[in-house]
Design goal:
Length: 403
């Protein structure tokens, strides 16, 4: 027997935060008890409405029903989310709500000082590699645990790292953000201690890395790391960031040319650099190198852009569209997106699977993939889209703006 009119009211609650105060969860006649089932249903509804993706929003909350009401305990992303959660829960709860929640403090900034920093799902070197970020990437530091930092990348992805980064106070980061920079454009290069090819290496660098531009010396840029080290990088391997950013766009020809630069780069779960990439790390890196920031995972990227109709000859598909693959929904399970590739136009596509290579949906082609054709779920167009569809130009991101 249903004790409360929970589900219809939860649908109302999920619709708009503005309606919360006007939509309390009313008791039915003769049913005075708020049950643990309703307690957990309401928490699940709050999570779905306020923090649907644990990869980008901290929402570690429990709800326990006791004699004095429901206690909400745990940690949430910020004070604003905490207040929204309390408002949501109080509007739907038939008993008192006891607040035992903590919000994360205001984040500080750390800027990556190695060519590729590893970000893990939990603190510890043996933990799963969640993603990677490149030299010069600004990270929001949310908290720390035994030498590990819980960070949020510019694409909002949450992970742990203890790789080398330089923590900056707000004014120091503002100075760094506005400084002239160079972006590494070669797939691989080396930052040297002097302006000659035979000098001592300071570190490697990969495409997309950022360094402060200190000046020029012959065929080299003089550069500075976030932690103050200085060195030299060949002009042939880098470009001033401001002019690169002004020229960057998601033109299909540029995107495909960038994608093909990574032919043969090995597959690496969690990888997002020319040292190794997973499928969505490949797509997000290609777009980043053309001035566009995408969500990290394939199951996030599938919600970007606009849908494109699928037919057998792929007549509606354009170069640069995304193909999404996975498991179709059944009566007992939801759809699961597990892979993404980039259309080359028509039946051909490029993707990272074992390594970066091309395949075709055409049964007559030598590189035909029957399994991928069977598992194709969606085609999405992200080219020429905007932030409303989840596609964020890098020049508009507050952590990268030069002004």
């Amino acid at each position: 027997m249903t004790r409360f009119a929970v589900l219809p009211l939860l649908l109302v609650l999920l619709g708009s935060d503005a309606a919360l105060a006007q939509t309390p969860l009313a008791q039915l006649p003769g049913e005075p008890t708020f049950t643990n089932e309703q307690t957990q249903q309401l928490l699940a509804a709050a999570k779905q409405r306020l923090a649907p993706d644990r990869r980008t929003i901290v929402f570690d909350v429990t709800a326990s029903l006791g004699a004095n009401g429901v206690t909400l305990a745990g940690e949430v992303h910020d004070q604003q989310l905490l207040q929204r959660l309390l408002t949501f829960y109080q509007a739907g709860c038939a008993v008192s709500v006891i607040n035992d929640l903590a919000a994360l403090p205001e984040p500080t900034i750390g800027v990556v000082c190695v060519s590729v920093a590893n970000l893990r799902s939990k603190p510890g070197h043996s933990q799963e590699l969640g993603t990677q970020v490149l030299l010069g990437t600004p990270l929001r530091i949310l908290k720390q645990d035994d030498g590990w930092s819980y960070v949020q990348a510019p694409n909002d992805y949450l992970c742990w790292t203890n790789d080398r980064m330089h923590r900056m106070a707000a004014n120091e980061f503002e100075t760094w953000r506005k400084q002239a920079k160079v972006i590494i454009t070669d797939t691989f290069t080396t930052v040297l201690s002097a302006a000659n090819a035979g000098s001592q290496a300071i570190s490697d660098a990969v495409a997309g890395g950022l360094l402060s531009l200190e000046g020029e010396r012959g065929e080299f840029y003089r550069v500075r790391y976030p932690d103050g080290r200085t060195g030299f990088v060949a002009k042939s391997a880098a470009r001033p960031f401001a002019s690169w950013l002004a020229d960057s766009d998601d033109d299909p020809k540029h995107l495909i040319a960038t994608a093909r630069r990574f032919f043969g780069v090995p597959y690496l779960w969690g990888g997002t650099s020319s040292k190794g990439m997973d499928c969505s790390g490949f797509t997000s890196t290609v777009w980043f190198l053309n001035g566009v920031l995408l969500p990290r995972d394939a199951s996030q990227q599938v919600h970007t852009g606009i849908a494109v109709a699928i037919d057998d000859p792929m007549s509606k598909v354009q170069a640069g569209d995304f193909f999404f693959f996975g498991r179709r929904a059944t009566e007992n399970s939801s759809e699961r997106v597990t892979h993404v590739g980039i259309s080359l136009g028509g039946m051909r596509f490029i993707h990272s699977s074992t390594d970066v290579h091309e395949n075709s949906f055409d049964p007559e082609a030598a590189d035909y993939s029957a399994s991928l054709k069977r598992s194709l779920l969606h085609v999405r167009r992200v080219i020429d889209q905007d932030q409303k569809t989840g596609v964020r130009p890098l020049r508009d991101h507050p952590l990268y703006q030069l002004r």
